[in-house]
Predict the 3D structure of the following.
Amino acid sequence: MVSSVPMTTSHWIKQHTFSSPDISTDVLIVGGGFAGLSTAYWISETRPDLKITLVDRGACGFGASGRNAGFLTKGSASFYQSLCVKWGAERALEILRFAEESISLLQQNILKASPEIKVERTTCQTLFQTDAAHGAWKDERFDPEKFGFGWKKQDHLPPSLRSKFFGALEGANEYKINPVQLMGSLKKLLQARKVQVLENVSVYEITPEGINTEINRIRAKQVVLALNGYFSEYHSAFEKLILPYRAQMVAVETDEELDCPALYYDPPERVYWRKTSSKVFLVGGKRLLDVRGEHSNFDKITPVIQQGLEAYLRDKLRLKYKVINRWSGIMGFTDHELPYICEVAAPVPTFMLGGFSGHGIGLGFKSGLEVAELVAGKKPKSFFSQFREPEIRL
Ligand SMILES: Cc1cc2nc3c(=O)[nH]c(=O)nc-3n(C[C@H](O)[C@H](O)[C@H](O)COP(=O)(O)OP(=O)(O)OC[C@H]3O[C@@H](n4cnc5c(N)ncnc54)[C@H](O)[C@@H]3O)c2cc1C
């Protein structure tokens, strides 16, 4: 794997003006994506007496949090089917409740008070192209109705999808969001609360004397690592736990009138897509076309995936379009598809949250609250620790 940002500090740089004075804080949050920003929000909400510092080696929201498809969703029918198979229906339902609460907390605490964030209520549809594809996908351990998914028959799909799909499992109360606006508003809110936000600062080590960055040392009483797809790059202790996978997207413009107001997943095709305006479509996925190549923390687009995404637009959605943007981002996957939120053995008391496995926007806000409660000593374990809690030593 290739690291894109230099770590450690040379003898020469240390003596140069790049370095800045050491600082002290109560809680240091490393990683300014949605997970880190949400954690900072909840700590500042529940413990306004604490000094909080958040650092990111780039700019806040420049990781996956600002590169995703903007599905603010509890998750697709496929996600819950897979969780039922792994954990049983009862526990999968608990995860659904967690996701619902996470979105509702984000609504009440951030979205209602932030008119600058473009957000739109919609539904989420898991599409099937044929009856046989739906049949092959079904699993007796997953009852869609229990999870709030209703079957939308072909003749109830919008006319533009009727000829292409046999039907869909639809979940209500989902949202389309502009993720960069969300990250920007969270950052502003934190700064208004006097959270110290330091960008272009890379943390590379936690020592008993403090947390070393390439420009200074930060003395902190507690540390939160929110590195998602970059955990394994930070320390080998995370290598087997959180695997980095690249996810690519393409944005296209079309003049065709397509009535597609929802968030769409097409499980057999391994794609997800949505419209952002009447003329602009985003489509992402097709990672399985190059599983080995996409197991990477290096941000780049590749022909095989981009061609796969375009083939879907052209052959399945039968669109005529013009490509207006292509990009990628790095996700962090765990083998159980759920994040790790737990304590980590380190020279300074440290917690981690990450491994959102492609669902961080739906799960992230309440995950930040879970960490805030661990930091404040309000509870010994997070919700997710019942699924798996690794022992990690840095
Ligand atoms: C193309 C794509 C589409 C997606 N679509 C969706 C979607 O529609 N809905 C959904 O729910 N999820 C989606 N996801 C997943 C979602 O974006 C992530 O789960 C979520 O953003 C994770 O947030 P995070 O804060 O944990 O990670 P990130 O946003 O990646 O933040 C981690 C941060 O850590 C910083 N960092 C790393 N190392 C260091 C260091 N040593 N020192 C300091 N800072 C460091 C990075 O710069 C980065 O900003 C998608 C992801 C991608 C890539």
Observations:
- The mean pLDDT is 94.
- The first helix runs from residue 11 to 15.
- Residues 22 and 377 are 27 Å apart (CA to CA).
